[in-house]
Amino acid sequence: MSSDYKKNSLTLAxxxxxxxxxxxxxxxxxxxxxxxxxxxxxxxxxxxAGAVVTAFSAYTYVKMSNAYPxxxxxxxxxxxxxxxxxxxxxxxxxxxxxxxxxxxxVARTFANYLLRGLGMEPGGWPVPAIGVALIVFAYLVNxxxxxxxxxxxxxxxxxxxxxxxxxxxxxxxxxGVSFVATGxxxxxxxxxxxxxxxxxxxxxxxxxxxxxxxxxxxDPHRNVGRAIVISIAVCVAVYLLVAFAVGSSLPLDRxxxxxxxxxxxxxxxxxxxxxxxxxxALALVATASGVIAxxxxxxxxxxxxxxxxxxxxxHCGMPGKVPDHTLVYxxxxxxxxxxxxxxxxxxxxxxxxxxxxxxxxxxxxxKSMCDEIGARGWIMLTAIGLDAVVLGTFAVLKWQADPVIxxxxxxxxxxxxxxxxxxxxxxxxxxxxxxxHHGPD
Length: 441
Prior knowledge:
mainly alpha, 16 helices
């Protein structure tokens, strides 16, 4: 793996493929059933609500990435907004962790679909074992270089977006447009619907993958923002199509019962055995490409945070340079999470970390960067408000259902910020310049 950041090594198509690769892998395959469990029969609307919240959030990232395209992405935004402080470093590390959590989520989803396709009931030790094997495979692809990631992401993105959209059309055609997932409304009512938006936001957060590759995208001052907008638009269309297809094929109770492999469960009654196996194959392609794209982005982000002296780094006896090492660290952490957490808890932890980080980004940019980047402050404040409502509602429901994961999330965030405060106090960044590798002007 080359340790240098290669300008113009990723095209607009590569960037869109990477963004949709992360989003569709998590959104439809890993989260549809969990969203339905919270939102009840309104679960397709949760994707629309999540897209609205994401649209407000994406505005800040687009404005900052167009102004300052960087291989550091989120880290760059936070450092410019807050300076080399514990807040910036801690929030950046939360983002990196949420991306690693996403890799674990999608890796376990890959395992569930594979086992279901083999006629086995998903569960037990095979799920983490297969998930870890996928993460190792993703490491090998990433270690081969940017073009391997870009080309593979493009091919797999076309296959899965087209294939999953075709599944949605075929399922609607076979089952009719009647929506059978009409069981009783969620016991949590409107609170459950709002909480479900936290998970649907996770289904769109893959757009941040693009910001973390900004310095390597061709014409980054224009194409980073374009890639983000295109990726979100593609995913909204695919999510809605598939959500209605699943709801037209299965009653709500069956969607929830099969929440870890809902698309495969919906394919069989609508499309028969052939459709079932094709859907499983598409799910495997989608989740595999999602893990590959996410590992690429988060390893780059950790490398840039190291360059910016915002996190500690040790070679641990490994050859190569910083990006080679951060790739290994990313894979190891993702593998550990895959082994020890189930899908529901992984998704919840990712939602907590991401939403807190997202609010900090909007606040920091609104407070100190609005005029510099020519942004509209009211959009950022609206994004903060929407995030706060969703996060608060989600936290209340999770505290009632699974207080352990809330405590883990809060404890994890406190640990991150305290760790960064101590690290930066003992190792203040040298120099006053912003050590970010920008794209070409």
